[in-house]
Amino acid sequence: MTNKTKPIHEVRIGAIKAAIWRNETEAGVRHNVTLSRLYKDGEQWRSSDSFGRDDLLLVAKVADKAHSWICTGQEEDNGNKAA
């Protein structure tokens, strides 16, 4: 069984989601963000990194919220530390 790393925070508006990842580097902590669109395929939920025209405004808003979360140091405020 593999140990899956989980994001330290997620931002979601509708079907658009940003996952924020904490990375320890020699220069200190850095954050990366992955964006995805959730959709239902039959009875199963899936995700895609492809966005249509109508998704783009939500992508921008979710990215903005992820940026704000990182810049305001929410990780430390929430007590999220790398384990």
Describe the structure.
By secondary structure, the chain is α+β, with helices and mostly antiparallel strands. It has one domain (9-76). It is 24% helix and 41% strand. It has helices spanning 56-71, 74-77, and strands at residues 9-13, 16-25, 28-41, 44-48. The protein has a four-stranded antiparallel sheet with strand order 1-2-3-4, covered by helices on one side. The mean pLDDT is 89.
- Kindly state the mean pLDDT as a whole number? 89
Biggest sheet: strand arrangement: 1-2-3-4
Q: Which percent range fits the helix content?
A: 10-25%
End-to-end distance: 19 Å
Shape type: globular
* Radius of gyration (Å): 14 Å
What does the secondary structure layout of this molecule look like, with pairings?
Elements: E1 9-13, E2 16-25, E3 28-41, E4 44-48, H1 56-71, H2 74-77
Antiparallel strand pairs: 1-2, 2-3, 3-4
Features:
single chain, 83 residues, alpha+beta, four-stranded antiparallel β-sheet, 2 helices, 24% helix
